[in-house]
Amino acid sequence: MRKTKIKTIDITALEWFDKANGNSYFAGSVTINFGTKAVRQYTMPFQYGYGDSYVDQAKKTLEEANEKLPQSDHGSMSRLCRENNIILRTVKHENCKKSELKDI
User: Fold this and answer.
1) Based on the number of CB atoms within 10 Å of its own CB, is 66 exposed (0-12), middle (13-18) or buried (19 or more)?
2) Who's near 5: CB < 8 A, 6+ residues apart?
3) CA–CA dist 100, 84 (Å, integer)
4) What residues contact 96, with CB distance under 8 A and at least 6 apart?
């Protein structure tokens, strides 16, 4: 199957904060070309990370799935999308339960 050009990247993450140890964890999904026939979705399993680290992991997930990402001098997902006219939408749901992350 030939992969079509990337027009949109949607990143959704759930975050859980382990109060006992003071660590943040996330899990989520990355969707390419949402709302089109060429939609592709990838999962980011439960892992350590805080802040916007879920966005960096999304890029790594796409690279591991052999998605043809355009090159960027900077390397960040937001810059890559901005330089290549790709719509980037991100959302992180905070204060989730650990079990919600494990279900992804």
Assistant:
1) exposed
2) none
3) 34
4) 14, 15, 16
DSSP state of 94: -
| pLDDT tens-digit map of 61-90 | 999 999 988 876 677 899 999 999 999 999
Burial code (b: 16+ CB inside 10 Å, e: under 16) for 67-77 equals: bebeebeeeeb
Report residue 1 as tokens. 């199957």
Tens digit of pLDDT for each residue in 39-55? 999 999 999 999 999 99
